[in-house]
Design a protein that fits this description.
By secondary structure, the chain is α/β, with parallel strands linked by helices. The chain has two domains: about 5-35, no CATH class; about 40-205, Vaccinia Virus protein VP39 (Rossmann fold). It has nine helices and seven strands. The protein has a seven-stranded mixed β-sheet, with helices on both faces. Helix 1 (about 5-25) crosses helix 2 (about 25-35). The N and C termini lie far apart (about 70 Å). It binds S-adenosylmethionine. The site of S-adenosylmethionine has 25 residues, from helix 3 and strand 2.
């Protein structure tokens, strides 16, 4: 006979699986958040308004390598691939294997390179894929909840990896990321996007 404890454990798992199936990519994102709330930092992917506004200043004709930190379920990946030149490459880096496996299973594009790893290692990662610099880097990392020292290390590595004229694109729920960026980027443009849950701050740090 099944013990009440086992029934109690099995029911939520079954229910969670059902909810996940109904939600599609949002379900995968929610699962990623439930398993690791501090590293994911949000329960809902970015809105299309945020994506459009964040990517608007990118000079796509002169973009060969676009890097994304924290792609989650790929909310930015598809719009970036739509805009990226045919000979371009999109390298996405996430610490969560659930998201990387999901991206590998759902996006098939020869320009798309999903990597399980930390954004702090961006220099080694792009080098391993034959690049010595990136044209643009977009970040959805939850800077304010990352472990101590990780945010500043990522901002420094990003500045080193960008070519002159390239930019670090950051969207955040708090203005804290700007502090990390300001140590390296002298010109930082900013805007807000209200149609996002919650509304978010958008920054573009340009490398002179
Ligand atoms: C708020 S989610 C971003 C979701 C997605 N980009 C969007 O727009 O909906 C933050 C992501 O950052 C990832 N992450 C956290 N720390 C990281 C790190 N050091 N390097 C790479 N990815 C990291 C998490 O696993 C998660 O996928």
């Amino acid at each position: 006979m099944t013990s009440p404890e086992l029934v109690g454990e099995a029911l939520p798992t079954k229910a969670i699986r059902k909810i996940k199936q109904m939600l599609g990519p949002w379900g995968v994102f929610l699962e990623g958040f439930i398993r690791n709330p501090v590293m994911v930092g949000s329960i809902i992917p970015s809105s299309r308004f945020t994506i459009r506004k964040m990517l608007a200043p990118v000079d796509w004709d002169n973009c060969r390598l676009f890097v994304e930190y924290g792609p989650g379920v790929g909310t930015f990946c598809r719009p970036v691939l739509q805009r990226l030149p045919r000979d371009g490459q999109l390298i996405v880096i996430d610490t969560n294997p659930l998201f990387i496996d999901y991206l590998k299973a759902t996006i098939s594009d020869s320009r798309f390179v999903p990597v399980l790893g930390s954004a702090a290692d961006v220099e080694d990662i792009i080098l391993a894929h034959g690049h010595d610099h990136a044209d643009y880097v977009v970040s959805g990392l939850p800077f304010s909840t990352l472990p101590d020292g990780v945010g500043p290390a990522i901002a420094a590595a990003t500045h080193r990896v960008l070519r002159k004229g390239g930019a670090f694109l950051v969207y955040q729920f708090t203005p804290r990321a700007r502090d990390f960026m300001a140590r390296h980027f002298t010109r930082i443009d900013h805007q807000m996007e209200m149609i996002n849950v919650p509304p978010c701050f958008l920054y573009w740090g340009w490398k002179d």
